[in-house]
Each structure stands twice: as C-alpha cells, then as structure tokens.
Design a protein that fits this description.
The chain has three helices and four strands.
C-alpha cells in the first residue's frame, strides 16, 4: 500500500468499503451540513474527512464496514431544531477502481493511497470523419 498523505496508518480489511457522501442543502444551512459531518464522524468513521464544505453542501470521504443505507441513517439523525427540511440532495457512492480527478488535488492523493491508481485508458483507433 502506498504511503498515506493524511497520516492514517491503518489498513482496510476486506469488509471495509470506501464511500463518497454528497449532501446539498436548498439554502444556506451550515448547521445542517456540520451536523451531518459530525454524525458521520461519530457513528460511521471517526477519520471521515470533508473534501469540501460550503454553506450549501459537503462532500465527505468515508471508510467503513457499513453499507450505504446504514451510513445514511446515521448521517441524517439530526437535531429537530436543525431539521432536514433544507436537504435538497443526499447521495452515497461507493468508490471503485476507476476514478479521475485533477492532478495534485487532495482527492487524487487520497484515492491513490486508498484505492490505487485509476484504470489506464486503452488504446483506441482514432475516428476520422
């Protein structure tokens, strides 16, 4: 396994999967975004980290033995005062072997160290018109 630039020296087991959790709020609701991130760190993966956060959304990388439905249940257990009324979108995607990102991005380093190198593009014949 490649050296992890985030300092996480634990190796994943066969029953651990990697996910990207994407959340969008319908209006500026930083409290909702923060609560979901905190829930994931407390109930799913203490080392989960946000790739980006703004007042309307968050993208979180998670490693866990839980399935997506369990991650969703834990993440969306929010305080009634905050509520889920401003939640516009919620998506959990398992991270697989084929991926792409900007060169030298935070995500590139995480994916390379946790998932491995992306699949190489096969040689293709050029199409002429």
């Amino acid at each position: 396994m490649a050296e992890n630039p985030f300092g996480d020296d634990t190796e994943t087991t066969d029953d651990t999967r990697r996910y990207m959790v994407l959340i969008a709020a319908s209006q500026d609701n930083l409290a909702l975004v923060q609560q979901i991130h905190k829930n994931i760190q407390n109930e799913v993966d203490k080392k989960a980290f946000a790739i980006w956060v703004d007042s309307r959304g968050i993208g979180i990388v998670v490693e866990t033995g839980l399935v997506a439905a369990e991650i969703q249940k834990a993440a969306l257990a929010v305080d009634a005062k905050i509520g889920l009324g401003n939640l516009r979108g919620f998506l959990i995607v398992e991270i697989g072997a084929d991926w792409a990102t900007h060169k030298d991005a935070k995500t590139e380093h995480w994916m390379a160290s946790h998932v491995g190198n992306p699949r190489a593009a096969p040689p293709r014949k050029s199409r002429r018109r």
